[in-house]
Batch of 3 targets.
Target 1
Amino acid sequence: MRRSPAALPARIPASRFSPADPEGAAAGPGRGLRGPFGLSSFSVRTSRLPCCSGFFLRALAAALSACLTPAAVFADGGPAVSASSAIAVDARGGQVLWSKNASVRRPMASTTKMMTALLALELGDPDEVITVPKGVERIPEMSFHLIPGEKLTLRDLLYAMMVRSANDAAAVVARHIGGTEERFVELMNLRAKELGLRDTHFRNPSGLHAEGHYSTAADLARLAREAIATPGFNELCSIRSIVIERTASRDRLLRNTARFLREYPGADGIKTGYTRQAGRCFVGSATVDGWRVITVVLNSADAGADTRAIMDYAFARFAPRTLAKAGDIQSRVRVAGGEPEELPLALESDVVVCVPRGGGKLRKLVELRGLEPPVNRGDRVGDLIVEVDGRPVQRIALVAARDVAPRRSRNPLFLAVLGSFPAGYVFVRRSRNGR
């Protein structure tokens, strides 16, 4: 697809919600007023969503905890927490539900191991047997007490790294995947760049404190979303305890130290972290009635209490809502010089947003790119932006639902003249040469 290089993105209100959206009929007075490209501006107010039992109980628990636990009190901006930085996001779409200093760079301790596990699962074979190299027995802090020459599968080393937070296991994984720890750290930073983690930099695979080793709550939430979408990761991060078969050592039981994982209903991850410089850190995850929320707290006095307070807030104050499905036609635009001239725009993926339980104003906007034929079916031609109460919360790619070819002239007189021109030109040239 060719696009006009000088064309700026055109941001226009989308047409009313697709038939899959039950709120489409609730469009405001502006419904039916046609704008550019035949689209109409509108806004929709959500109805009160019925509380199912799980959400009702969680809302009740949040109210009780507000009376009993100061850390869980819902302030104007959300829960009151001790963490220096924190965030809560929808695990599927990444919509930010609440945040506090989420873009401030801080040391993140062993939450680093999420990236180490992600790369190991992407680049390694979990069933491959690895021989423990010399030197890992000298790695400080948390350990699985690995013995040089001992043989373990990559999967068992990942369990040791994610469940016990063993630094020696992280070093062995890094050397196996990258050849050296230094090369593996390079891979970590390259992957961070690919994921758009602009405020993250790694200096080691374990999270031991080092100058220049930092991240943010927002970046760690994005990393967690990528990790849980990777096959095998959820099993690693949700296990409370596991026994590893070893012949060289009696240290076999791995137990996750995160009380949140054992005590919070629906908890399913993800990673603890602590150093003196980073404070207590935790990337948490919980799924209630099919909706998964990810939280991050950095430099917290009580990471478990902070995580519970944020989770209670998210589940009590928001609910996921599917507005449209992948493939639904959202708008139709005119492609000048195209055949056919009208181009339907389809969603590349489902549109799921988290809306306030008390009701919120929803609006969908289409942001178009400069379009010129030819346009191929499936080409990305713009984005659908969803706003909740005037704040953009979701951006979904819009793709061409059919091909659009350059228009060919259908003027018969023009075609006749064009077709006879070469013959006439030759006749004139020959007549002149004969003189």
Target 2
Amino acid sequence: MLGFSVRTASAFALVLAISASLVFSITSRTRAATTNAFSAKSKSDDRKSSLLVSHRAVYELSLAKSIGNKSPTAAHGRIAFDFTGSPCDGYVQNFRQLTELQPPEGPTRISDMHSATFEGADGNAFDFKLQTNIDNGPAESVDGKAWKAADGHLLVNLVKPARNKFDLDAGVVFPTEHLRRIIAAAQAGENVLEVKVYDGSETGDKIYDTTTYIGRPIAEPAVEKAAHIPELDNVRRWPVSISYFEKGKKDGEPNYILSFDLYENGISRALRLDYGDFVLAGEMSSLELLPEPACSK
């Protein structure tokens, strides 16, 4: 779940960079998934969060919608997502997105984005590494750590793209905590959740305002064969849509919107990545549940 300036999609190289960094948590940019304005404490905060299952999922990307004469005419790609961890040891996410976009003129553009993150079990510490390559050009990297100070402010120590240390707002959550809050809100029957999110994306110095809309539980079975496993038979899922905004600009258009069906155990299906001028759809092609680490919590 990352933030970018999608409204300037007329500059296709920027559009491609946006597509490349669709990221963390989809739980987030996945980037992921995500929600809840700390300025107003959510009713979900005091509830016990659901257990997030360790899993590996692959999604096939295709162009679902294109608007205007400067948007891509074709697109395809793949997202590979690994999530492991526990409430004892914290959570690890490994994410890769390979995307090919065909502009109205010129050659196909290819982006390849990798990310790896670790989030502490208590949601107070976050390590992140992100690397993006466009058309086999030089890699753009972000590498750093973030943690919450005693007063709630966010402290960031960046190694790349340049060494830097700085403070950010209080009341910010990291991607996995964001996902847990979405699930808690869905379980409680809440429809809207707002939160400030930090995921280390772009140059590692931004916080995004997010608004998540949660629909009613879905009764119909999933269409993808990959989701037809016994472990998901009785697991509730909800339609979720997360809008990502530049900090302090929620009255305007979001940078992008990430929509998906969210299972109660943290698995996502039916991705939809809306960049304003074009939309990518992600269909789950494989799903593997991974061994769960022992945890007494």
Target 3
Amino acid sequence: MMDEATLPPAAATTPATADERPPIELTEAALEALLFVAERPLSRREIAGLAGTDRDTVDARLGDLEVSLRDRGLRLVVDGDRVELATAPQGGALVARYVGADAVRLSPASLETLAIVAYRQPVTKTAIERIRGVDSDYTVRTLLHRRFVVELGRSDAPGRPFLYGTGFDFLERFGLTSLEELPALDVDVAERLAAEGGEPITDPMFEGGSALDPEPIG
């Protein structure tokens, strides 16, 4: 038996790294299967790396998949650079009955706070409280616990407070595929919110940073 020192050069090399693995054709079916088994949202960069392909190909396949799913029981949900599959709103009642999940009821204070976060993210708790005019610590913590709101990063303001935004659970619960589907605000409300929030993020919690600017697929 030959030891490693006597092996031909090709046989003595280390196993291929992830970057050296042969590429896999990223078909629409393969992409759907990948997102179906993923236990968390995947970034476009991750998908490209797994398939050994480029970003343009990933964007093209995501666009194809989005169109194919329009009349089916799943939807492609987009939050910035990350994507995942979710059940379509039309099947929500039946799915909820199967899993035994009751609809989450939010208090008026929680709904008001969630609306502020959704339309003005990334936003600090201090900015939320200035808009609402009341302490919002408990309400923000409740929304974080229910995963309607997530920590996106930190602000450059003194004390470097957390910046909050909406996550995938918010999109899924309200039957949205991206933040672009949020209803338009009344002019007066929009002007009031425009005075607060929208702060730059430092130390982002997620790859791609903020959920403020959802990236279109098509």
